[in-house]
Amino acid sequence: MMHETSRLLEAATVLSQCLQSAGVPHAFYGSVLNAVLSSAPTTDEIYCIVEGGATHPFKRVRQACAGSKNLTTTPSPWSNRLHVTYHGRIPAIEIEILRAGEEGPRHLDSTTATLLAGIPFLTISEFLRAKLKAWAIRRLEHDAQDIIYALTRYWDRVDINRIPEQDMRDLVAQYPAASASWRELRRKYSSRGRT
User: Fold this and answer.
1) Rounded-to-integer distance, Cα 118 and Cα 7, Å
2) By Cβ atoms counted within 10 A, which residue in 49, 92, 123, 133 is the most buried?
C-alpha cells in the first residue's frame, strides 16, 4: 500500500522522539529512505530498527511509547513481531519494529546511521546491506528496485566492505541495471586497496 512520504516521516518523527527520550538507539529503514533521497511523494515501506541492550528491543519500544497519546504498540508473539501505530493521521500509520542484528547492523551509531529530515536512517551502505539480505531471502522485486536506485545514485558513498558480495553478484546477474554502478564501486576500492 502506498503512503504519502510526508505522513510516514511525521509518524517516524513522533516515534523517534519517544525512542530518543528513552535513550533507545534506532534507525529507520525501507523504501522510505529512497523516497526521502529522491523527494518522491509516495512510498510503501517503513521499518524501525531498534537496539536491545540489556532489555529486549520490543520491550524498550513498548516502554518508550507507553506515555504517548499518538502511538500504540501491538505485539504479535506468535510471529515475534511488534508494530507501532501512529494515530495522529487518518488512516493510522503502522511501523514495524525490527531487532538490530537480525535486520540491519547490530549497533546503531554514527557509523551505521545518519540523520535525514531530522530522523535517523541507516546509512546508504547499511541500507544496501540490509536490502540485499532481504532480497537474497525473499527475491522481491521492490527490494531489488530499492537496491538498484540507491546503488546507481550513491555508489560512491558505499563502503564495499559492508556489502555481501555473493548476494550482489546474484542481484547483478538478474538485474543488469545494477552492473555499471557495482563495477564502479569495485573499481574504486581495487584502485586504493580494499581495507
Assistant:
1) 14
2) 49
pLDDT at 194 over 60: no
Complete domains list, the chain, with CATH = 1-122 (3.30.460.10), 124-195 (no CATH)
Please say whether the beta carbons of 121 and 27 come within 8 A.
yes
28 and 120 in contact (C-beta within 8 Å)?
Answer: yes
C-alpha cell at 157: 558513498
Q: Which pLDDT band, with edges at 50, 70 and 90, does 183 fall under?
A: very high
Looking at residue 195, its pLDDT comes to 46
Are 171 and 129 a contacting pair, CB within 8 Å? Answer: no
Contact 64, 19 (CB under 8 A): yes
Edge-first strand order for the sheet with 93-99 is: 71-76, 81-86, 93-99, 47-50, 26-29, 119-122, 113-116
73-112 pLDDT, tens per residue? 999 877 788 999 999 988 999 999 999 998 889 999 999 9
Place of cell 540485499: 132
